[in-house]
Structure formats: C-alpha cells, structure tokens
Amino acid sequence: MNTTEVIRAENLTKIFKTRESEIVALKNINLSVKDGEFLCIVGPSGCGKTTLLRIFAGLEKQTLGKVYLRVKNTEKPLTAMVFQGDSVFPWMKVTENVEYGLRMRGVPTRERREIALKYLKLMGLEKFAGYYPHQLSGGMKQRINVARAFASDPEILLMDEPFGALDEQNRLILQQELLRIWEGSGKTTVFITHSIDEALLLGDRIIVMTAQPGRIKAILEVGMARPRDMLSIKSSPPFVQLYREIWELLREEVLKARDIKLKK
Ligand SMILES: Nc1ncnc2c1ncn2[C@@H]1O[C@H](COP(=O)(O)OP(=O)(O)OP(=O)(O)O)[C@@H](O)[C@H]1O
C-alpha cells in the first residue's frame, strides 16, 4: 500500500454458498481509495455494492483476495457505517444516539456531549437533542445517523445508500449538509448510491459496477470544483457529459441485472 492509500482491495472475490447454489457476488475487484477521498459506487441492484462495503467494515470476509485498511490512529475506530433507513436506537434520546460510539470508547460524559452537540448543530438538530427518535421524521432520523458516524470520528466513513429512503427534497438538503460537514472533516468516504446525480454531486471519483458477478466496469474522475451544489452543477457541461457517460455504462448493466432476476 502506498502512503496516499487508505483502502486497497486486490483481486477481491466473494462467493456466497447457499444450500442450492453458489452466488458469485464480487469478482476480482481491484481498487484503492485515497486519503481524504470521497468515492462513490454505483451499480445495478444485486451487483455486490453492500457486500463490498461490508467487507471493508470487517462485517463480511472475502472468499479470495486481499483487503488492506490503513490504521493511522489506533485510538479512533477504523470505520463507521451509515445504512439506508433509520438505524437509530429508539430507546435512546437523540444526543445519546449520537454519543453512542464515543460512550463505547469510554470518552468522558462532558466531552462526548460537546462532540455530539457540535454534530447535532451541524445537522440542524440541536433543538431536538432531548427528543426520542419516534418524535422525529425519517429525514431527521437519518441526520442522527450521519451525526453519529461523524461524532465517532472514524478513519473511514462507509455509507450504504444513506438517503435512499428519503423524499427528493429531504435528500437534497441532506446531501448538501453531508457535503458541508465532510468538507470540513477531510474524511475518507465510500458512498453507495443508485443516483447518478448524487454520485456526481458528492464524489471525487465514481466506480461503475457490472451486473452480478460484480466487477469494476469503469472508474471516472469527477473533477468538478468544490464546494458544489446541485443547482449550479446540474446545468454545467461536465455534469451533463459525465451523467450521460455513466448512464450509458450503467444502462447495459441494469438491463443485464433485470434478465438475471427474471431467470431466477
Ligand atoms: N448473506 C448472503 N447469503 C447469500 N447471498 C447473499 C448474501 N448477501 C448478499 N447475497 C447475494 O449477493 C449478491 C450481492 O448482494 P448485495 O446486497 O451486496 O448487492 P447490492 O449491489 O448492494 O444490491 P442493492 O443495490 O439491491 O442493495 C446478491 O445476489 C445477494 O442476493
């Protein structure tokens, strides 16, 4: 691994064995994620995106190949994951949810409360610190998840379609908020999405995956200046050109994935 890399995958293959069959979820993935990079992954349903993220998070073991993650600071968690939908603890108040990772690490109460409040503020949730999740909307709960991930201060943020379940307006607001806190943090981030718009707004690079078995079909540099916002980039020529390029790559794979599903 060279000094600019934080994640490196070499010939990564994942095969799930079920009673009836074997599913090759990922095949020969070679990729590296640079320090501070925002990497987006798009691909058709079932192409192994979540599996790849789970391998990076140590929640799943690859069948073949190697994964290296650079540990810079052993006191911090290596990764934090944000999933689609809400994964907040319903019995904990908003602040307690955000503090959770810090509490697990034994960070003293006052310090962890300060950190939690900082991220609640950044996510526009400070007024709701004492509320329980059931008193909040879906978008607000997803904000808690994002605040919790940043508060636990991992080396690497892994986000699996975190805004996939939100309506368009809430998604736009959260994307912008995520960008704002990410830009201030410089955290290496791997972000899965089905939305080309979202990948272009957020990513430094975009990986397009093939239909199952998931392989890397293309890696594209986004190259648009930051800070970005959806309104101004959407009509810019690089956005339009990259959108078209990605959709052409993806379209073929989405159709293949549909055929795979029909045959099952
Ligand atoms: N624990 C498991 N056991 C068996 N098969 C699995 C398991 N986890 C995932 N798979 C299979 O591996 C393939 C890849 O799944 P994965 O969830 O990684 O895809 P994905 O690209 O994230 O899909 P989506 O976009 O729909 O969320 C799928 O065919 C899935 O059914």
UniProtKB/TrEMBL annotation:
Q: Which SMART domains match?
A: AAA
The family database entries (InterPro entries) matched by this protein are listed as:
AAA+_ATPase, ABC_transporter-like_ATP-bd, ABC_transporter-like_CS, ABC_transporter_ATP-bind, P-loop_NTPase
Q: Where is each ABC transporter domain found?
A: 7-236
SUPFAM superfamilies in the cross-refs:
P-loop containing nucleoside triphosphate hydrolases
State the organism named in the record: Thermosediminibacter litoriperuensis
One Gene Ontology MF term = ATP hydrolysis activity
**Gene3D superfamilies registered for this protein in UniProt:** P-loop containing nucleotide triphosphate hydrolases
Name of the protein in its database record: NitT/TauT family transport system ATP-binding protein
The taxonomic lineage of its organism, from the top, reads: Bacteria, Bacillati, Bacillota, Clostridia, Thermosediminibacterales
Keyword list, A-Z:
ATP-binding, Nucleotide-binding, Transport
